[in-house]
């Protein structure tokens, strides 16, 4: 998994091109040739986010490497476009309006977080991606979510809801994960 220095060296436009090519091929649309790069063959974890007219249209990813970065970006692009349960599959007619963002995750560090106050002391707003884990429940927000939820308490409350955990009763077994991303975004 890339560290902070390696994240800064990633070929962003190439990652976006691979994501776009994977979805276009699935839609039976013309697919331009996309060059290869050594970074695509290293293990990596990514999230691919799709937006349409500035609104979320799909977002799927992995928190830890399960394959090469290139394969992960392509798989998550297809999943975001066609298998995000919150949205119907992307159609060819809307494809020209879809903007893609690829986030490559750095390694997560985990700590026990027995209280909400302890959790809030550890996170760095607008920098950290956050994972909350309690029992079999787990949820994450990429660092980009801070733009919509800038208040740390509200950020954590929404993340608890996403995980299906009670907002008013902090679980004593809570694990906090923090990670950084390198994001690459197409202009709409």
From TrEMBL:
Gene3D superfamilies: Hypothetical protein ph0010, domain 1, Hypothetical protein ph0010, domain 2. InterPro entries: AMMECR1, AMMECR1_dom_sf, AMMECR1_domain, AMMECR1_N, AmmeMemoSam_A. This is AmmeMemoRadiSam system protein A. Pfam families: AMMECR1. It comes from Uliginosibacterium flavum. It comes from the Bacteria. The lineage of its organism: Bacteria, Pseudomonadati, Pseudomonadota, Betaproteobacteria, Rhodocyclales. SUPFAM superfamilies: AMMECR1-like. Residues 1-188 form the AMMECR1 domain.
């Amino acid at each position: 998994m890339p560290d902070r220095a390696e994240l800064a060296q990633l070929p962003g436009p190439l990652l976006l091109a691979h994501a776009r090519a994977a979805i276009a091929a699935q839609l039976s649309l013309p697919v331009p040739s996309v060059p290869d790069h050594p970074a695509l063959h290293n293990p990596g974890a990514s999230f691919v986010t799709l937006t349409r007219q500035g609104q979320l249209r799909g977002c799927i990813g992995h928190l830890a490497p399960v394959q090469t970065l290139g394969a992960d970006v392509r798989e998550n692009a297809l999943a975001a476009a066609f298998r995000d349960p919150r949205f119907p599959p992307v159609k060819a007619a809307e494809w020209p309006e879809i903007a893609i963002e690829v986030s490559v995750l750095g390694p997560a560090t985990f700590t026990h977080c027995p209280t909400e106050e302890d959790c809030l002391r550890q996170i760095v707003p607008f920098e950290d991606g956050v994972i909350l884990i309690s029992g079999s429940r787990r949820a994450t927000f990429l660092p980009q979510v801070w733009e919509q939820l800038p208040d740390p308490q509200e950020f954590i409350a929404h993340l608890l809801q996403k995980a299906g955990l009670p907002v008013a009763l902090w679980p004593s077994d809570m694990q906090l994960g923090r990670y950084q991303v390198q994001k690459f975004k197409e202009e709409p």
